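Format notes (please read before filing issues)

Several people have asked whether sequences and structure tokens are stored in separate files. They are not. Every record keeps both together, in the order shown below: the sequence lines, then the token lines. Line labels are part of the format and must not be stripped during preprocessing.
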Amino acid sequence: MIKFFRQIRQRLLSEGKTTKYLKYAIGEIILVVIGILIALQINNWNEKRKNSKLKNAYTESLIENLVMDSISISSIIGKINTDVRNIAKFEERVSNSQNPLDTILRIARYEYLFTIYINRNFLKDTYEVLNSTGHIGLFSNELVKKLKEVNSLQERAILDVSESVVSYRNVLINYSRKYPFSFRNNLIKDNTKAASEIWNNISKTEHATEFNSLIITKGYVYRLELLHYTKLQTKTNELLSQLREI
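Then the structure lines:
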């Protein structure tokens, strides 16, 4: 094609048709510019289509991650609230008991749940890929702001809850040095002769105060968790609603 245009230009010059040559040259330039513009438009269209597919894939992945996080948070909140209600019932029983130290002892030996419900992980793979690749720019500034907000709330929840759980664990370790309770990897299990001998020789007063410390520490952890998880659940669901509208 280029050779064909060159031949035309050369023929016009050789024939001395300068005016026609100039008109033809201008027309050729215009055609070249139009061709470049069309090529750029096609390239832009292809790029937009590729970015649109990429954005849709990220959106689906984000929704999947956040749905799983929301379900996990709801489950943890439900379990925490159930445990909190059980502790409230223990408190009521002790308050109304004629022999509160014996009631506390029975609760500790047979009814209290020594484990604690926490959520240490959130699904952040998609968000991290978006940041590492720079593809987070595919989304609007408003959505990026909400993604960062949810991620920040997740990190704060993990940090604060983990620190509070360490406090509970330390109290639990101290408690376990004196009193046997049902737990994995425990040589002195409940309803065994060894456990009965220990329980029959403890100071009920000391046990009551130490068990109460355990309850207080667990209550603090749960209050902190509910504070973080309730807010995080609200923000997660808000973000999910916005992503589903894309």
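For reference, the curators noted about this record: Confidence is low (pLDDT under 50) at residues 1-5. The helical segments are 2-14, 18-96, 100-111, 125-133, 141-176, 193-199, 204-244.
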